[in-house]
Amino acid sequence: MKAFVMKEIGAVGMMEKPVPSPGPNDAIVKTTAALICTSDSHTVAGGIGPRTDLTLGHEGVGVVSEVGSAVNAVRPGDRVLVGAITPNWGDPAAQAGNASQSGGPLGGWKFSNTKDGVFAEYFHVNEADANMAKIPGGVPDEVAVYCADMLSTGFMGAEHGNIPIGGTVAVFAQGPVGLMATAGAKLRGAGLIIGVESVPNRQKLARSYGADEIVDFTTEDVVDRVMDLTGGEGVDTAIEALGADVTFQTAVKVTKPGGTISVIGYFGEGEFVRIPRVEWGVGMADKTIATGLCPGGRLRMDQLLRLLEMRRVDPTAMTTHTFPFDEMERAFEIADRKLEDVVKVLIRF
């Protein structure tokens, strides 16, 4: 089969690989659609260290091709969504309620980290009964695929943010995850949602997903503007969806005492992330910093698919580019270099 791989740090390309085989609890999925994620770029740049001929990608849907002898929930021919995070559910971390961290920090993140990912004609899924969900008939593949990561991670930002009904929220960066955090804040009942973004097409998308106000950090002071919009109080919840030291610090600064800073950004460089001491209340302002990795599992996928089926949210407005798998190298270049006002790139197989 064809696979799109990270050959080494800084180098990608297509190569031939054998079709994988399932263990007793596993499944093989024939890929029908996938999305390129910024974290794929971080990986290629060396964010998780060196990798050789590792198949990239962790956002995929497809049709079950083969299952192991102990798999009961899915059968060959089923259309399925597979979470970007595929934990080992028998791990103590998973049993303690921290499934995405099973097997150590980030241990549930296997695709394009510790095993081949979904940018291939077929991919392997561990613990298939627990890590994939059947796609409802009314939900197309190009819609369902957003549940693998973007909806799950973005909504997690709102869930971890402890947003009170009618509360105030600032979402830093309106990339795909930030946009879904904005949509999640609206679904959670936020009364005022402030999107921090400078790119015009992303500002427009932010408004369509629920942002009431847009703050452009290139033309105004973010802290001053957010404080002005909240009557000098700051927000109940700040969601950091970029993964940068400066946005994290600003998120802490605009959060009111007793509020929550919910971090869903990928901090791919730098040795430290700094906390502004004074605005942190010198450690005593009751500000909570919550972090998390994209929640996985069949229950989570079923819940997200239900939102799509009931049309509570339409993530496809983020799809700015579509390519066939044969043009994967060009597609990755556009996503990696952020060309042509790209937001999200869909790959069809």
Q: Your description of this structure?
A:
With 349 residues, the protein is an alpha/beta fold. It has 2 domains: 2-149 and 294-348, Quinone Oxidoreductase, Chain A, domain 1 (Alpha-Beta Complex); 154-291, 3-Layer(aba) Sandwich (Rossmann fold), CATH 3.40.50.720. 26% of the residues lie in helices and 25% in strands. It is built from 11 helices and 16 strands. It has helices at 38-44, 92-95, 128-131, 141-144, 150-160, 176-187, 200-209, 222-229, 245-254, 298-309, 328-337; strands spanning 2-8, 11-16, 27-36, 54-55, 59-67, 79-82, 122-125, 132-134, 168-172, 192-196, 213-215, 235-240, 255-263, 288-291, 319-324, 344-348. Strands 3, 5, 6, 7, 8, 15 and 16 form a 7-stranded mixed sheet that branches. Helix 11 (328-337) links the parallel strand 15 and strand 16. Helix 6 (176-187) packs parallel to helix 7. It is globular, with a radius of gyration of 20 Å. The termini are close together.
